[in-house]
Amino acid sequence: MSQQRTSSPVLLGIPTVRHERDLATDLPAATRGLPDRFGRGATDLRVSLTDRCNLRCTYCMPAEGLNWLPTQAVLTDEEVVRLVTIGVRDLGVRTVRFTGGEPLLRKGLEHIVAGTAALTTWDGERPDIALTTNGLGLDHRIDGLVAAGLGRLNVSLDSIDPARFAASTRRDRLPDVLTSLRAVDRAGIGPVKINAVPQPATYRQDAPELLRFSLERGYQLRFIEFMPIGPPETWNRAEVITAQDLRVALTDAGFTLTPRHGPRGSAPAKVEDVSHPDLPSGTVGLIGSVSEPFCDTCTRTRLTADGAIRSCLFSTTETSLRDAMRTGADDETLRRIWQGAMWAKPKAHGFTTDDSFATPSRTMSAIGG
Ligand code: SAM
Ligand code: SF4
What we know:
Layout: E1 4-6, E2 44-48, H1 77-91, E3 95-99, H2 109-117, E4 128-133, H3 138-148, E5 152-156, H4 162-169, H5 174-187, E6 193-196, H6 203-217, E7 220-224, H7 243-252, E8 256-259, E9 270-276, E10 279-287, E11 300-303, E12 308-310, E13 317-320, H8 322-326, H9 331-343, H10 364-367
Parallel strand pairs: 2-3, 2-11, 3-4, 4-5, 5-6, 6-7, 7-10
Antiparallel strand pairs: 1-13, 8-9, 9-10, 11-12, 12-13
Helix pairs in contact: 1-2, 1-9, 2-3, 3-5
This protein binds S-adenosylmethionine (SAM) and iron/sulfur cluster (SF4).
């Protein structure tokens, strides 16, 4: 029997577990991989390695008052590798992205990456291994991570102005991020993606500056619309800076954006070619989770730091693999529980059209972005 659970209010810490209907009962017996009832299949695993962070981005975490998961609730390195192995070997996962919270706070990250790199996908390849990080301390870790098998990197950076960076993250750490980016350049992993969440008061300055910075250094900048998954009461639909707002701001700043035609597949970003008379040409990605949602083509499955499967970032329920694993479940049982959770994936997240949408009770930092 799998355990589906509802999350407690964000600030109260670990979700309470309650036993509910076994989600796997609707699942066809011979199911392969991680399909859902709407014809999608998940091949892209996001693993949150910790709910903790050394920044406090305004759109992600409250300034204070967030209870951390107790250490014993968090998966050990071996438990993470075991579940990633089941995902890749038994369920068709091809891409594994480590995130958090801040995944660099996890001492065993290199070990976990190496364990993932030793796996073989159903296509006979090494999994595509990616990391999403705020970059603090990455200068000391990047060589070890690349040696362990890390293939791709996203670094979050909302502003290259020190004061605006500090306002966005509530920490004065821009120089440390820039030091890390220089180390990443030397390590030769790339192209690096830069993730930015645009803010109403500053995006007309930050967006062109970030794009200039990225084009000069060969980074791929992606703007992510502010989603209702940060601290409660911080999100207001009317204040979301949309992909279209960014197109206008960048055009006003002298950039020419040309949308790429053809299917974007399951990638969340709409990629546009960018040119500017004074800069190398490149691209910008616009992730319109709010204004241009992409639920129809979603291929994601998420594992939280405390071992729960979330079929959607905005799910209000989760299915614990950790509890089954710690009470002796074998790999076949864990595979079946994971499949049941994904089979129950909702059709869409709902906040684009539904004003009664309920914000998930964990913040992005606790789910894994
Ligand atoms: N700490 C790492 C980092 O910042 O890259 C990894 C975790 S963070 C939750 C992953 C991504 O989620 C970051 O790029 C961050 O900007 C984004 N994010 C966090 N809260 C968000 C929100 N409410 N709406 C949109 N994106 C958000
Ligand atoms: Fe930390 Fe990343 Fe959330 Fe910022 S977005 S508070 S860096 S987890």
